[in-house]
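An instance noted here:
***
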Amino acid sequence: MKPSLISIHIPKTAGQTLRHLLELTYGKDQVLNINRGRLERQGKALVSLHPEQYHVLHGHLPYRAFISPYHDSETQLITFLRDPVERVLSNFRYYRKKKAERLEAGKTVRHNYDLETFIELEERQNVMARFLEGLELTDLFFLGFQEQFLQDIRLLSKKLSWDIPEEAFLIKKNPTPSTVKTDKAIRQRIAALNQADLELYNRAIALKSEGYWH
């Protein structure tokens, strides 16, 4: 037995809101929410958490390393993408927010990069492409976009026949403060460093315009 629904939560693509809706729909006890980082910190393998006992698997889990063993023709695989430049900027805002919280609490931090340094880190580049590596977009049961999250989550709920109240779709704004106007050169540098993500994102837009995931 395998989870019948797997949600690949790419960082900063409204995954927390999606998780809330999944738990509301299927019940918290039927949603295994687990991230690669937590597994690594605990020294555990995903199989040790028995994902086959859950209806839904959701989290920051790259496809090739974690999801592929649980993906077959009967699995409904979903994810959301976001404009690559905006995703990196949002990721940086979240990173700095967490660092500030630790410092305010009197805790130490190993690093506290500025934006120019952050975007040059290889692990912060082409995150969407790396999460979906080994997967064809056309194999996804559903792909949505963070920029039109409400529209796409309603579409997904219809495709999956969710029976949840209308007020569940009253999506709260992301509490992370917005970035002050970002220098054009920085945006261009982010785009140059994330070409794989840009290609993936544009491919997804083209497929959606052709009728995929509707």
About this structure: The first strand starts at residue 5 and ends at 8. The mean pLDDT is 93. The CA atoms of residues 70 and 155 lie 24 Å apart. The radius of gyration is 18 Å.
